[in-house]
Design a protein that fits this description.
This protein has 177 residues and is an alpha+beta fold. It has one domain. The chain has a 4-stranded antiparallel beta sheet with strand order 1-4-3-2, sandwiched between helices. The longest helix is centred in the first third of the chain and has 26 residues. It contains 6 helices and 4 strands.
């Protein structure tokens, strides 16, 4: 299945689950929690985040492996997906953010900033499948993104192994208080 089709299906599913509301961008997590949308239950948000993570991770891997060619001036797949993240946040009030876990950051904006993100980095490094929190009207879930051989050249320029490493993806969804 093509990555664009996978992504379109995910966005359509999010809208059908009642997350679509007024189309205003959320500047930060507080604005996201206050956005005029139909908030999901924590259980519902958890499932949405699981599906969205799987779709974003698969899309990143497929685009990187099949369509990205080094030294051809193409944007890095993770960078290109940030445009998708912005659209999802604007249209669905769901925030997605890359998170540095292991290796060299390609963008310092991906460094852990909040206490939740610092905890998530530790959890992912420790091999946990995800780290989650529901507080202040938001459900947050961070889970690993695998950095495979195609990723290691940039993220681990001085590597001594080609073993898969980890980054992370944080998904934030408004929930019922």
């Amino acid at each position: 299945m093509k990555p664009v089709i996978v992504f379109a299906a995910v966005v359509a599913a999010l809208g059908s689950w009642g997350l679509a509301g007024e189309k205003k961008p959320a500047a930060d997590d507080q604005a996201l929690a206050a956005a005029p949308v139909k908030a999901a239950s924590v259980e519902h948000a958890r499932r949405q985040a699981e599906i969205l993570h799987a779709a974003m991770h698969a899309t990143l891997q497929i685009v990187h492996h099949r369509y990205y060619v080094e030294d051809e001036g193409l944007p890095l797949p993770a960078f290109a997906l940030k445009e998708v993240f912005a659209d999802v946040e604007r249209e669905e009030h769901v925030k997605l953010r890359w998170l540095v876990v292991e290796g060299q950051a390609m963008n310092t904006d991906h460094q852990a900033e909040t206490p939740f993100e610092h905890e998530a980095v530790r959890a992912i490094k420790d091999g946990k499948p995800f780290h989650e929190q529901a507080a202040d009207g938001l459900y947050r879930r961070a889970a690993p993104v695998l950095l495979t051989a195609h990723c290691l050249k940039c993220h681990f320029p001085n590597r001594t192994s080609t073993a898969t490493q980890k980054a992370g993806l944080v998904i934030t969804i408004p929930v019922k208080q």
